[in-house]
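Technical note accompanying the year-one report. For the benefit of new consortium partners, we illustrate the data format agreed upon in the data management plan: each record pairs a sequence with a structure-token string. No post-processing was applied to the example shown here.
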Amino acid sequence: MTEPTDLNNLAGLSDPTEDTPRVTPKRNPSEDLTGQQRRFLRGLAHHLSALVSVGKEGVTEGVVGAARDALIEHELIKVRVHEGAPVTRKQAAPELASGAGAHLVGQLGRIVILYRRRDQKPDIRLPKRA
């Protein structure tokens, strides 16, 4: 009897269970957001639900990876920092933003708002810089 073939190895792909560090994407746009742009994004985020949660383990690589993936899909996301988390929202926000390559748009209560524009076909058009 032959062993089952691993299709990932045949295709030359690496093992998904390997502990390879993820590359942090660059912030897009690279320059800081203006107050007007932050206000515009906070308005858009008002009706959004939190897509990522920081729980009792704190800001882990898994949480940062989930934020990266959500930003690829949605551009603008909310992250909820639960009461049981070992970090406060003010501690978690810059760590999440830098790890996900995103702009920190705002913080309110236990919610952090992050934004990263897509390279191709962005959905959100920011107001022009003054």
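Partners are asked to follow this layout when depositing records. Residues 61-74 form the longest helix (14 residues).
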